[in-house]
Automatic annotation (TrEMBL):
GO terms for molecular function: ATP binding. Keywords: ATP-binding, Nucleotide-binding, Transport. Residues 3-225 form the ABC transporter domain. The keyword Lipid metabolism does not apply. It comes from Marinifilum caeruleilacunae. Belongs to the ABC transporter superfamily. This is ABC transporter ATP-binding protein. It comes from the Bacteria.
């Protein structure tokens, strides 16, 4: 999938300009969206996932247009927000089963097979009977990624993926995403920690106070710095 961000600006009702004429192209593989707090990363992501409209500019996902094809775009997207929490009494496997049914998988048999596959992939099979909200922080994050991916989205958007995770969980999380990025998907990761993602992304963009300060490969970023 080719995502074409064209001259995007966002001005909030209070006059704050969070995005200023940002243009970017994002292809398959892992894309890193870098920038300090307040740079505009979340604003850009909220626009991409159709939760917020831009003040100016447009985005295309292949031939789908953000202005006219919201429904189609939502169908191909998976979004894992930063402050993802489980307000649920469901067991870990039930939570994924529910996510799979929301993603439109009607057959119980197929759902259960998918749930088991994903529990294995993210290393939660052994705790599948545990209440989802009693899992550790890192486990919850992994359950979040499984929930996001169980519907086979073509574009995956992950906000600050490794915040609050210990080093071991960070590596684990990155490995899960690397594996997925071998397939025909686009993964967009946002972070304020460069070292977090530069090793796994094939291209990067750097936002600073709403403006695009850099876009290119991790290598080019290092050479410029
Ligand atoms: P980041 O995700 O990079 O931290 P954000 O997109 O959250 O950046 O924020 C960009 C700027 O816009 C910041 O100055 C932030 O305070 C401001 N901002 C974000 N959301 C709103 C809002 N709803 N109303 C007004 N200003 C906002
Ligand atoms: P992020 O980690 O995305 O930068 P923030 O802490 O900046 O998150 O924002 C959290 C929430 O507060 C968001 O919904 C954002 O829209 C809102 N927000 C952020 N800055 C402002 C602001 N200056 N005025 C109003 N709302 C804001």
């Amino acid at each position: 999938m080719q995502i074409k961000i064209d001259s995007l600006s966002k001005v909030y009702p209070n006059g704050k300009k969070a995005l200023d004429n940002v243009s970017l192209e994002i292809g398959n593989g892992m894309f890193g969206l870098l920038g300090p707090n307040g740079a505009g990363k979340s604003s850009l992501m909220r626009i991409l996932v159709t939760l917020m409209e831009p003040s100016q500019g447009n985005v295309k996902f292949d031939s789908f247009d953000l202005k006219t094809d919201r429904k189609e775009i939502r169908n191909i997207l998976g979004y894992l927000p930063q402050d993802f929490r489980f307000f649920t009494k469901l067991k870990t496997w039930e939570f994924l089963d529910y996510a799979a049914s929301l993603a439109g998988i009607r057959s119980k048999k197929i759902r259960h097979k998918k749930v088991d596959e994903w529990l294995e992939k993210v290393g939660l099979f052994d705790v599948r009977e545990r209440d989802a909200n009693k899992l550790s922080g890192g486990m919850k994050r992994r359950l979040g990624i499984a929930q996001t991916l169980i519907g086979d989205p073509k574009v995956i958007i992950v906000d600050e993926p490794t915040t609050g995770l210990d080093p071991e969980e960070r590596i684990r999380f990155r490995n899960i995403l690397s594996e997925i990025s071998q397939q025909e998907v686009t993964i967009i990761l946002s972070t304020h920690i460069v070292g977090d993602i530069s090793s796994v992304c094939n291209s990067l963009a750097l936002l600073n106070t709403g403006q695009l300060a850099f876009s290119g490969s991790p290598q080019e970023l290092i050479e410029q710095a």
